[in-house]
Amino acid sequence: MDQLKTKEAHHQHISVYVPAAADYHVVSSQIKFSAIGARRWWNRLSRLQKSVLLMTLCILLGFSFLIALTWTSPATASEFHQHQPIPNHNFNTNSNEDYAIRRPEVQVVRRPAAADVPPRRGRQDKPTLWGELPNKSNLELPTVPRVLKPDLEPAVTERSKPKVNKQLAENIRSIISLDPVVALDPQKSLSVIDVNKPEDGKKIEFEGPQTPRQKAVVEAFLHAWNGYRKYAWGQDHLKPISGGGQDWFSLGLTLIDSLDTMYIMNLQNEFKEARDWVESSLSYEVPQNVNLFETTIRVLGGLLSAYHLSGDPMFLKKSQDLGSILVVGFKSPSGIPYSDINLRSKSAHGPAWNPDSTTSEVSTVQLEFRDLSRITNIPIFEESAMNVSKHIHNLHKLQGLVPIHITPSTGNFRSTAVITLGARGDSYYEYLLKQWIQTGKTIDFLRDDYLAAVEGMKNLLLQRTKISNLTFIGELENGKIFKPKMDHLVCYLPGTLALGVAHGLPNWHMDFAKELLYTCYQTYKRQPTGLAPEITFFQTENDSEADFFVKNNDAHNLLRPETVESLWYLYQITGDTKYQDWGWEIFQSFLKYTRVQHGFTSIGSVLHPENTRPRDMMESFFLGETLKYFYLLFSDKPIFDLNSWIFNTEAHPLPSRDH
Ligand code: DMJ
Question: What keywords were assigned to this record (predicted)?
Fold first, then answer.
């Protein structure tokens, strides 16, 4: 005992005392002593006293079990009834409508024959995506994600095996495993190492605008592009009223975001000029922080897509150089990437004001990093990004829904963060589905997490307005309190839902998509400018005076693409031309209220046609996404085969596995 006391005194600053081997017999004799005492005490009790004690013990155990269950199981809809009415969803879950009917009969996206590459014969001989679908009865999947062993598929398929640049792969791996500092050694220049030679004959040809509406979009594109070319060449954004440029990351964002749009519109001269700028002037020696997500979806995505469409190896080299720097972002204790990267010092960190990363950002880089691995045959890009998806798969979610912040140091969600399909949450859900498609529908946990999330949206976020029964998706504050607020960003969701249905997911998702897209369209149509605001509040009370309203601070329009994106998916998948007509109305409103002298501008208010408060800013995604989706929407035949291509969240098409 003395020995024990001495040790305890010696270790009194340590809260848990662990006996050394020499102390072990002292401790065990103490335990024996206590056990004998307890037995004597028990024997002295009457039978009644014993029964009362045993019953109390059972009740206590029962309570503890119930409490543990509540803490560890996912919250159920009933927990939210105190905050929200039960959603009135009535989708027909037995619909048998076939959305595969819009499979393009003519391969409009085509490779040149003979000289460059043999025509893509054999494609017809292979089972098509539609033929490969599991039969519908197999599609009733569990709504709660099962814990599956997520097998990482091989990064490079048999079909596309470039020569491995072992030196480069080694170099990147050594950088990624630097420990414990995140910074890279700037001396290890990756760009001096030659990239692999791409396969020959990757060039794809497009026929250019065919319909009057497409021609109007090309005219709008050229108006914006010429302003950018004249006043902001090589800068991130155009200031279309004052005629100047603006830099955010100093990476030529508008130019790179526009490359594939020009290629698809068959604007060959414009594409060539921009391509030459990328070759001669795009530099990653940028002495400032860039955002990992934005740089990945816009720059890496834009370069990769330009590579796949044009077959130009210069884009591959630029993609590889950039990916080799960006990959440092994943070097955190949990593997959840930091939000910011300093391209010159090759170091990663969170912003000064917030240690957390954004959930949608860390989970919206996987399509691009996987594609980079496939074309370079360097697996670490895909591995780093896929680890994030696997990690998030294993975190607790609320019926598949996730809070919008996650901490790189711990790998945990910030549980009090908002749950939303809008800003900072949106593309987490989008990339679950798109990754599943990109990997040939072989990684079940991606599909299952997506399906669970769509169920969660229906149960917890979907409501309808009182007056016109408009379907909308609200938010959960603190993971609990329902707010009937919907960002314009949410309007990407109908397109994603429809894409899932086209790939064999349940048909009721299409009803959900159609209802939500109608609401998105109404957020344009019911404004006096015909343009939607950034945020809309919906009304569900019995005495509502309107379906929705807009606060002055939320009334701006940044030329965002999401509604047009969804119109394109719904049109291409259902063939219903009303989506083209809705898009045409929206396009007219953009022309009327945002077209200015040197391009198109964001506006401060959609509420007052006489005072739209132009902001003198044209975001890169207007050319990269909005006008591209208008162009695709107004085509009378599908330009991209959704069997073979998957669009990243910035509208850059990448080959899916089937390609
Ligand atoms: C784009 O950069 C991408 O579409 C992103 O996913 C969301 N925000 C903008 C467009 O609104």
Answer: Calcium, Disulfide bond, Endoplasmic reticulum, Glycosidase, Hydrolase, Membrane, Metal-binding, Signal-anchor, Transmembrane, Transmembrane helix
